[in-house]
TrEMBL record:
Residues 179-301 form the Type II secretion system protein GspF domain. This is Type II secretion system F family protein. It comes from Intrasporangium calvum. Pfam families: T2SSF. It is found in: Cell membrane. Keywords: Cell membrane, Membrane, Transmembrane, Transmembrane helix. It is a multi-pass membrane protein. The chain crosses the membrane at residues 6-29, 111-131, 137-159, 284-304.
Length: 314
């Protein structure tokens, strides 16, 4: 009974502290206007940017409290950015994952993941305390901090995993797209017309990137610059060589179809080489159970009759 009252008192104390912290954060002396808020009245006549140029990621919806908690999440994300750093790396991985480069949003998501990990750690410490009937306070705090750190790390790992998965899909689509481009160019289409035809007939991650290149070209950039943006966003060596080949063919007037076929053949060769490397690694991993499990049991069955005949007890 005493334990139940202690947990209830702890919950009431935490809730009271959270309420007092929110009240203190909302005091007029702490609601100082930022530089953006002070300059906003003088910049109202400025043209607003088009919504088509804004990021395509949805806003954070925290059970209807997204707008209320957004300033606090932004501050926590800024603090996390100052502590961890790595903003350019996060922006590159977001572009590789096909998302808008928004480091501030990712830090907010990382704060939410850390909060979820802290709550999971708190629940775990509660279960351990109930099962063991006693658990030291430093151990509980350490488990909560460990859960929060694990949540932040897992969010960062999820972003890198999404970027790698998307690049693998693009590499799988690349030979087919290159062959279609070569066929379109051989049929008499220009570079831009071939890209439009392939984007209209195909789908996938690489086709989406090519559509983005065409949109950049229609917006005023020349085709080599738009394709170079594709190479910069993805960071794949094969796509970089593909873009370099197209740019050289467009600028110098060399046969584009032969270049595209050669690029597709190179990607297929790279895919075979990667499969051979993965097969070699899997072969080594498959030897682990054979050497450490099957072979000792086989040796034991072989020497057991002789040892038992000599009188050794196993």
């Amino acid at each position: 009974m005493t334990g139940e009252w202690s947990w209830a008192g702890a919950a009431v104390g935490v809730t009271l502290l959270a309420g007092l912290a929110l009240v203190a954060a909302g005091l007029p002396m702490r609601r100082r206007a930022t530089l953006e808020q002070r300059l906003a009245p003088y910049l109202r006549d400025a043209a607003m940017p088009s919504r088509l140029l804004q990021g395509g990621q949805p806003a954070l919806h925290l059970f209807g409290f997204g707008e209320l908690l957004a300033p606090y999440l932004r501050r926590l994300g800024d603090g996390l950015e100052r502590v961890l750093g790595g903003g350019p790396s996060i922006a590159r991985r977001q572009l590789r994952a096909g998302r808008v480069a928004d480091v501030e949003r990712f830090r907010a998501e990382q704060v939410l993941a850390a909060a979820a990990g802290g709550v999971a750690g708190l629940v775990g410490t509660g279960l351990l305390a109930v099962s063991k009937r006693s658990l030291s306070i430093p151990t509980m705090v350490a488990l909560v901090i460990l859960g929060a750190a694990l949540g932040a790390v897992l969010r960062d790992y999820a972003l890198g995993h999404a970027a790698r998965r998307r690049e693998q899909r693009m590499l799988a689509e690349f030979p087919t797209v290159a062959e279609l481009l070569a066929l379109a160019v051989s049929a008499g289409e220009g570079a831009t017309g071939a890209l439009e035809r392939v984007c209209r007939l195909s789908g996938g991650e690489l086709a989406d990137e090519l559509r983005r290149c065409l949109a950049d070209a229609r917006a005023g950039a020349n085709l080599p610059t738009a394709l170079q943006g594709l190479a910069d966003r993805t960071g794949l060596p094969s796509l970089s060589r593909f873009v370099d080949g197209i740019v050289v063919a467009v600028e110098r007037g060399t046969p584009l179809a032969d270049v595209l076929r050669a690029q597709a053949q190179d990607v297929r060769e790279d895919g075979r080489r990667v499969l051979m490397e993965q097969g070699g690694k899997r072969e080594i991993v498959m030897m682990v159970p054979v050497v450490f499990l099957i072979l000792p049991v086989t040796v034991l069955f072989a020497i057991y009759p002789g040892l038992s005949f000599l009188g050794f007890d196993l």
